[in-house]
Amino acid sequence: MNEIWAGIAAAFRLIVTLDADLVDITLRSLQVSLSALVIASVIALPFGTWLAIRRFRFRRLTIATLNALMGLPPVVVGLIVYLLLSRSGPFGVLGLLFTPTAMIIAQVIIITPLIASITHQAMRELWAEYHDLLISLNTTKGQRIMTLIRDGRRTLLTAALAGFGRAIGEVGAIMIVGGNIDNATRVLTTAIALETGKGDFALALGLGFVLIALALLVNFAIHALSRTEREGRW
Amino acid sequence: MIRILTAVLILLAGAVQADTMRLAVTTSFHNSGLSDVLLPAIETDTGIDVQLLVVGTGQAIRLGEAGDVDAILVHSRKAEDRFVSAGYGTHRREIMYNDFVFIGPAADPAEIGDAGSAVTALQRISQSKAPFVSRGDDSGTHKKERALWAAAEQDPATFASWYKAVGAGMGASLNTASGLGAYIMADRASWLNFGNKQDLALLFSGDPALFNQYAYIPVNPARHSHVKASAALQLETWLTSPKAQGLIDGYTIGGETLFTFNATP
Can you tell me the distance from the alpha carbon of B86 to that of B92, in angstroms, rounded to the nearest whole number? Predict the structure, then answer.
């Protein structure tokens, strides 16, 4: 129990004094995970919706694969991205290993299937509702996807937030491809792993509380901005 | 718009030009806290921003072979010699040393405290079947531990469940040992800087077989043309300078010296 109180005290101290290192790694966490979220959403939201309205031969197989990929082990993704980006790997000339870009690439791979899968689930039901209307209006495929995305934006928000949650709390992949370099690729989760390794549980836990607070803040902010759960709206 | 773009490009170019280099170091070097003392001094004196990748010796060597770092600072003589002779590194330069120590529960059930040598200490541990945590990650410390087991004519692969290979860094392994009340071999620096000692204590040290030499190896630019050879050379010059000697010899925790500088100019 003592360790937990010490952790709360450490978190409080770090936040109140606006510790320069803490601000730095927190901003980097946000930068990496939000970039990954935007890129993954741009890919996954239209893809998930498209999958809901389009009928093709390997649809079942694609959906089953997508659902399975939701559980993609981050550490394996990290290892594969690492091998691809390593100087002796196929994309070595880009020199991306141990940079925030490499971390964003790994996180995009991890969260895209998750967002696409949740999107597909939600859109399938919405499509059942809108099917007749959109067909009778003789809409193009692009228009159908855009209509569904606009009207299903609340559930898509949930999908995106689930993706963000997985990205911001992820440590296995970014530890491997980022290397946890101080002032370059250290983020909250890798810093927590490092402090735990040093046996400094209070600081590790303090950083952990900061991470949880950050996830809450981002969720509140997005809900406030998109005005969900307000009176008179759904 | 063009002006903004130009400004951004100039900024980006500036960021690229800023002299940074990547150095793979062992967990023991970083966990000891010495890097926090050396890196700022290196940046002031040479203008090089050294980015540390804190990994085990095995992984550090792999990073050097792949050309993902510009130099490595490790502590496993055999692996270092192989690395250099295979042409991955240009040369090996000894920088400093510290020593390995045996840590265990303060009550010392295996009675290694008065063992005459490291080999005897290990034999007593295996006889008493007291829990023993091994790094198990192919790091320099792990290689040293296996060499000592071999010297004691024992094979860890045949040990029962009292021998726990955790496959983690020095700090994480020490955490496991303190949770289990187990014996463990650690480098002195990591032990002194470790924050979660619980009832563990330093039980045995001082055998010359526990000597732990750190060496610096720049990655060979002939093999990987992109490595920052000049920065790596500058860093080597600094690490072997009197200034580095003063900082390394002067670094203490609780009054104990952690590393001894022994680079030859």
Answer: 13
